[in-house]
Specification:
Helix 3 (about 160-210) packs antiparallel against helix 5 and helix 4 packs antiparallel against helix 5 (about 260-305). It is elongated and about 105 Å long. The chain has helices at about 5-20, 75-85, 160-210, 215-225, 260-305, 305-315, 325-330, 350-360, 390-405, 450-460; strands at about 25-30, 35-40, 45-50, 60, 90-95, 100-105, 110-115, 120-125, 130-135, 235-240, 245-250, 335-340, 345-350, 370, 380, 415-420, 425, 435, 440-445. The chain has a six-stranded antiparallel β-sheet. A five-stranded antiparallel β-sheet has the order 5-6-7-8-9, covered by helices on one side. Strands 1-2-3-4 form a four-stranded antiparallel β-sheet, with helices on both faces. By secondary structure, the chain is of the alpha+beta class. The longest helix is centred in the middle third of the chain and has 50 residues, at about 160-210. It has three domains: about 5-160, ibrinogen binding protein from staphylococcus aureus domain (ibrinogen binding protein from staphylococcus aureus fold, Roll), CATH 2.30.310; about 175-315, Helix Hairpins (Orthogonal Bundle); about 330-460, no CATH class.
């Protein structure tokens, strides 16, 4: 479903005729991996869609409404693009290496868009093609376009103008959204149904077990009548039941109990099951009701033919409880993610074991690492590109988080260890998260509620 090389060429030429010499005035990530670039030329606003979400990879002029500005901004990627190109005029728009690679040339730096289905990417490069930033992290220092593979460039029947491409992919995304939502809702209903079926099965066993109370009472009565035959250590006994015409009745015994305890235990168990029967029957009735309810709900989800139809059902379906959650929902990262004022990712360990994973399995050597001095707390990592250093505001944001997620929080202030991850090492034989630091700086931090609120607001995006 991705655009072919020929289609990328056609739509790039169409875009170039409109936005070359236009100034970039805004950028926003409107949903996961979908970006809008907003240009202005002679008082006219022109919007370009760049989508890196497989299988809807594309670039074209768009009529999508630009989101309203908020205090939290429009995402870290958009912030980085704006920081580099805002107010600059686009000098050239071209396809590179005869492949699905589009270069927005702004003069001193360029934005490169790779529309590859396996690993699409965005790059910001300088005039010498040195990579200044990449959407997906890369170890490359300079940008070099990969070799084109025309035999794998996709379906050539997709229309080539921006208007028809936008209409085509809007329909495709809506269809995929319906399928994804239907699958999600169906999984939720099926989980509730399985839970109800398991409860029904258990309740049925409870009813059968409690319903046997008359037999236990009869065993106890017969055993009481033949009490003189009971001996310690017996595992079972066969006795004549005169109320059943003298038929033999075999009764299981507990060899650890005394004879009088055997009789008492049977009467007690009979009474307990008799008392529990009503409760077990009520549970069974409720379980059967729930099974019927979820079977009907599943049929309605299966019959739904539109997103609106699914949305009308969703309110009647409660979310999955933790015990019912799917494996994907149970998956948990060892860190919390925040975004600095300058758009850098800040990762905060959740506990000692997670600190270990974050520092030694997630963080790269050139990432920056913070921790409160003389207090236990979260490891905090500022993610940076290879060879880059974080700005001071990002370090201050990270320091606030390190203070917030530490034992020093109650004091409202602390000294902070600031270093790069490569200067942090494990201490053998010590508890998880305990580290040695070979080189560092110290930063005094005082709790700043206003800065913390801003960090948390940005990180909700």
């Amino acid at each position: 479903m991705s655009l072919t090389y020929e289609q990328v060429v056609a739509v790039t030429e169409e875009c170039a005729s409109t936005i070359v010499e236009a100034r970039l005035v805004d950028c926003a990530e409107i949903s996961k991996r979908r970006f809008l670039l907003r240009f202005e030329k002679n008082g006219v606003i022109i919007t370009v869609m760049v989508c890196l979400q497989d299988p809807f990879l594309r670039l074209h002029l768009s009529k999508t409404r630009f989101p309203k500005k908020t205090a939290e901004g429009t995402g870290p990627t958009a912030a980085r693009v704006l920081k580099t190109f805002e107010g600059q005029a686009l000098k050239a728009l071209e396809v590179l290496a005869k492949d699905r690679i589009v270069k927005f040339g702004f003069g001193k730096a360029s934005l490169i868009v790779e529309l590859f289905s396996k690993k699409p990417n965005l790059y910001i490069v300088n005039k010498g093609d040195k990579i200044l930033w990449a959407y997906n992290r890369t170890d490359a220092v300079n940008y070099k376009a990969p070799t084109a593979r025309p035999e794998r460039l996709g379906d050539k029947e997709v229309p080539m103008s921006s208007a028809t491409i936008e209409a085509f992919y809007t329909e495709q995304e809506a269809s995929a959204g319906f399928v994804q939502e239907k699958r999600r809702l169906r999984d939720s209903v099926r989980s509730h149904l399985k839970h109800a079926q398991r409860f029904e099965k258990k309740s049925l066993k409870d009813v059968e077990r409690c319903g046997a109370w008359p037999e236990l009472q009869r065993d106890a009565t017969v055993l009481q009548a033949y009490f003189h035959l009971l001996k310690p250590g017996q595992e079972e006994i066969s006795l004549e039941d005169w109320d059943a015409g003298g038929a033999k009745r075999t009764i299981a015994l507990d060899p650890t109990l005394e004879p009088h305890e055997q009789v008492e235990a049977l009467f007690r168990e009979s009474k307990k099951r008799h008392k529990g029967l009503e409760f077990a029957e009520a549970n069974l009735a409720q379980a059967r009701h729930d099974v019927e309810k979820w079977e009907k709900a599943l049929a309605k989800v299966d019959a739904a033919e539109s997103l609106e139809g699914l949305q009308s059902l969703e309110g009647s379906i409660p979310p999955l409880s933790p015990k019912q959650a799917s494996p994907e929902q149970k998956r948990r990262l060892p860190y919390r993610t925040f975004v600095s004022a300058k758009g850098l990712r800040i990762l905060v360990g959740r506990n000692a074991a997670d600190n270990e994973k974050l520092t030694f399995h997630v963080a790269k050597g050139n990432d920056w690492w913070l921790h409160t001095k003389d207090y236990s707390g979260s490891h905090v990592v500022v993610v940076v590109e290879k060879g880059a250093e974080p700005d001071q505001e990002s370090i201050l944001d990270a320091a606030q988080l390190a203070l917030q997620y530490s034992q020093a929080k109650k004091n409202g202030e602390a000294d902070m260890t600031v270093t790069q991850r490569k200067f942090v090492s494990r201490i053998k034989g010590k508890r998880a998260g305990t580290v040695a630091i070979s080189k560092h700086n110290t930063l005094y931090v005082k709790l700043d509620p206003q800065r913390l609120d801003a960090i948390k607001s940005r990180s909700k995006l």
